[in-house]
Amino acid sequence: PEETTESTLRALWLAAYGKPCSPENAIKHPLPDLTDDQLHVLDSLIKQRLSKIPLAHITGRQNFMGIEMLSDKKALIPRKETEILGKKALDVSIGISSNKHTVNIIDLCCGSGNLGIALAFHNPKANVFASDVSDEAVQLTHENIDYFNLHDRVKVKHSNMFEAFENDEFYENIDLIICNPPYISSYKVAKMDTEISTNEPSLAFDGGMFGLKIIQQLIRESPKFLNPQEGWLMFEVGAGQGEMIMEICRKKELYNIVESVKDDSGNIRVVVLKI
Q1: What's the whole-model pTM score?
Q2: Least confident interval from 51-55, 239-243, 255-259
């Protein structure tokens, strides 16, 4: 939604000038004069965008929760709808911070690291352990950790879900688990817009036959890692999936609280669980 014609052209203009930024930031800045060489670069960038290369891949930037993150083909481009999860997680982490010196957070399926890094950026008490099954996503997360100089409070591991955390350091010691899992059914992934399917990793979208494979594992395995006094799990879901997934959570009886957060259209986009 932030990529209007004006904001896109401004972002490309600033990229041609050598000051890449997201369209959200581009709209705030005056446009500098371009040299003839820079105008040729701008023309090339416009042609790339018209050929359906994502703007975030051209500029290398995407704004997420108010911070400019590095973005490229190695991982999913952070979306505005994921800020619904990020803002809820930030509120909960700040609440936990009032009673604890450190808030331990696991960010599964971290992609570019946007969720965990945003929480650490905005909450100085957040201690984040991120993971992804994709080597390329882990690499991009490392790059974003370096970019924001958050080495002390954000670590990233290559891991298939909880595999890297299966030890006593993490059992019952995590205050908050967050996840933006693949939740689109395999059938629908095959029919996605070519701008997405050609440029972004299918691993970040494909949630199996019904789009629930990772979500069911997340619900089932999280309790053994969560602080039994106040442990939270929250994750993004696709539009139309929310009620069904909340019913699954209630039937498993693993959580004392089963709540949701809706988008502006009234769709459940985040499921919130607490033990």
Answers
A1: 0.94
A2: 239-243
Separation in Å, CA 124 to CA 155, 176, 192, 195: 15, 15, 38, 37
DSSP-derived pairing of the beta strands 176-179 and 103-108: parallel
User: Does residue 209 register a pLDDT over 60?
Assistant: no
State how beta strands 126-132 and 257-262 pair.
Answer: unpaired
Tell me the mean pLDDT in the region 12-35. Answer: 97
Report how far apart, in Å, the C-alpha atoms of 36 and of each of 4, 11, 13, 103, 209 are: 26, 18, 13, 51, 52
CA 177 – CA 130 distance, rounded (Å): 10
- Tell me which amino acid residue 133 is: V
Q: Tokens in use for 238?
A: 């696709």
* Cβ pair 86, 66 in contact under 8 A: no
Phi, psi of 2, rounded to the nearest 5 degrees? -80, -10
Token couple for 213: 């494979």
| Rounded CA separation 104/93 (Å) | 9
Using the CB atoms, write b or e for 142-163: b if 16+ within 10 Å. Answer: bbbbeebebeebbbbeebebbe
Task: Quote the CA–CA distance of 52 and 55 in Å, as a whole number.
Answer: 8
pLDDT digits (tens, 9 = 90+) for 96-113: 999 999 999 999 999 999
What's the alpha-carbon Rg for the chain, to the nearest Å? Answer: 19
Torsion of CA 36, 37, 41, 42, to 10 degrees: -20
